[in-house]
Each structure stands twice: as structure tokens, then as C-alpha cells.
Predict the structure of Transcriptional repressor NrdR.
Amino acid sequence: MECPFCCKPSTQIVNTRPTYANSAVWRRRRCLNCGTIFTTHEVADLSHLVVIKKSGKSEMFSHIKLYSGIYRAAVGFKGGSKEKLVDKITREIEKEIVSLKTKKITSEQIGEIVLNKLRVAQSGTFLRFLAYYKDITNEAQLKRELTKYLPFT
Ligand SMILES: [Zn+2]
């Protein structure tokens, strides 16, 4: 792996440990050229996953898109580090997608996985994601969707 500081491909792994319930691997590396020590997180590779959207169009899976969607959904999140929570949820979702061992997934399928994770994590977060993900524009529509997903409505 290339050193992010001097760009020489001469790095050595100093230490390794799994993180995020084994969905990622944390490695400490040292550059043999400039001596800098830095940390990398290696996540399951979903860069070849194709997402089929509701419109029938497809696009490549994007970690950033998933992360930012969940981040936006967590607008009112209180009680801890939002970044940590969003990061954890995103990685758990990616781990689940990897376990499907598929090259194509529908946005609907991703949505269901996301909703299940959010339901466990934070109901307030979950509500916002539902409104965001399902393109819900009015109250009646939101209520209809909620009765499908939330046991307490
Ligand atoms: Zn270096």
C-alpha cells in the first residue's frame, strides 16, 4: 500500500485488529521510506455492486451515499457521537450486503436492510430515514408507511 504522506509504496503492517463486529479490519502501518505511522480501515469491497433503482436505472453502490443518507436521517440524534453511530450502522449494513453474495441489489432491498438496522438503533433516526428514503412528501403517506414498519403506531 502507498504511503499517504510520501506516496512511496513501501509500507509495513505494524499491528492489525478487527473492528465494527468484524466488518472491517483496522491496521496500523509504518512507511519504510519516511517513517510515518498511520492507520487504515479495510472494509468489505462493495465497489462492484450494482444498485437497481426504482426507476429501473442502475448505479454503482456508494459507501459515501449510504453514509450520508444515514447521517442526514440522524439529524436529531442526541446522546453520544453521531459520527460513531452512523459509521457503525453503515458498516453493519455493508457487512449484511456482503453476506448476500450478490452482484446486483435493488434500492428497495438496501432500504429494508437500512430500516431494520435503524429500527434497532434509534427510533427517531429511523423515522427520518423512512421519510427520506421512501420519498415521502405528505403526512398521510408517512402514516401509512409507519404502520407497516413500526410496531408502536
Ligand atoms: Zn512515507
Q: What stands out?
A: The longest helix spans residues 82-99.
